[in-house]
Design brief:
The protein contains eight helices and eight strands; from the N terminus they run H-H-H-E-E-H-H-E-E-E-H-E-E-E-H-H. The chain has 232 residues and is α+β, with helices and mostly antiparallel strands.
């Protein structure tokens, strides 16, 4: 006689939710009916679980009704793979900016049409400096990196935003472009009291220069194609 194993309700619910999440992540957009079928659930149960995933940022529903991975999934993936690909490629540029300015330097990517994600940092050397925000999201609107990721800043130029994401903080960002695509935003984040108009211009020139070096780096095309949150 074969022993029959059963799952308690909590484990069964977790399995169903994770199964739906897998279906969402393994497809370039999935319909509710297809996601439900993949996990052998009714459409009503699948919808309830997908709404829970959506409410917590693990899934997002597009205007055409497809479910795709949400920013939390991108965030987790970035944190798990932060030592690879785009981060590794950008490390020299980040270190160079810190050496030249003493300010904290960041690499950011697009998460969705409203938020970006801090992907990597090289902390500044000043006593007062911006601390590590890697893995945190920020609004695109009203931020220097956001302007870059939204395609509002041309290659070789930069954006400056004071008191955007944080009060008393100024960010200077430039686009890392591969072909015709914005792969990431390279930025310096510094206290506003140190970032005068002349200082911001100097920082912008340095950031734009390092960003241009990055998109000329051999191998970056493949890295950018695989990076989450590209802007076109």
């Amino acid at each position: 006689m074969t022993a029959r194993t059963t799952q308690d309700p909590t484990t069964r619910a977790a399995d169903r939710t994770l199964g739906l999440l897998r279906a969402v992540c393994e497809n370039d957009g999935v319909k509710l009916v297809d996601a439900a079928k993949a996990v052998d659930l009714s459409a009503s149960t699948a919808l309830r679980l997908l709404r829970t995933l959506e409410a917590n940022g693990f899934a997002t529903r597009t205007e055409d009704g497809l479910y795709r991975p949400g920013f939390r999934m991108v965030q987790l993936g970035v944190q798990a793979l932060s030592h690879e690909s785009l981060v590794a490629t950008s490390r020299v540029a980040l270190q160079s900016l810190v050496e030249q300015t003493g300010e904290s330097a960041y690499l950011s990517v697009l998460v969705d049409n409203t938020h970006g994600l801090y992907l990597a940092i090289e902390e500044g050397t000043h006593t007062v400096r911006h601390i590590n925000w890697v893995g945190r999201t920020f609004p695109l609107q009203g931020s220097a990196a956001g302007a870059v990721l939204l395609g509002q800043v041309e290659a070789g130029t930069y954006a400056v935003v004071a008191n955007g994401v944080e009060a008393d903080v100024t960010a200077v960002a430039a686009p890392v472009i591969v072909g015709s695509k914005v792969a990431a935003a390279l930025s310096i984040v510094a206290p506003s009291y140190r970032t005068t108009s002349d200082a911001a211009q100097h920082l912008g020139t340095l950031v734009a220069r390092e960003a241009e070096k990055l998109f000329a780096t051999p191998g970056l095309v493949a890295v950018a194609d695989a990076a989450p949150g590209q802007a076109s």
